Amino acid sequence: MAVDIKNLNHNQLNELISKAQTRQTELRKEKVVKLREKVHALIKAEGYSFEDIFGQGRAKSRRTGPVAPKYRNPADPAQTWSGRGKRPRWYNDALKAGKKEKDLAI
Which InterPro entries does the record match to this protein (predicted)? Predict the structure, then answer.
């Protein structure tokens, strides 16, 4: 199928490009499905399961909740910081005022 692109106007070219990109995506998905089927068939032919080869899926996140605070603002004990992320303004101000990190530790 030959398409003479010299005779196409701007809108027709854009439509052709869009259709070609859509078809390219479809072909890639089809190829992935076929490859996945081949891999599963090979694993089964060898006497293993997918989980034997690749594990039980994604590992669970190690997040267990919020982190306990490590530092407390001496001027306002309600303000704390865990030591992770951006330093709070009160922490930077205390360091500039001459306090040491261990002075702010809980």
Answer: H-NS_C_dom, H-NS_C_dom_sf
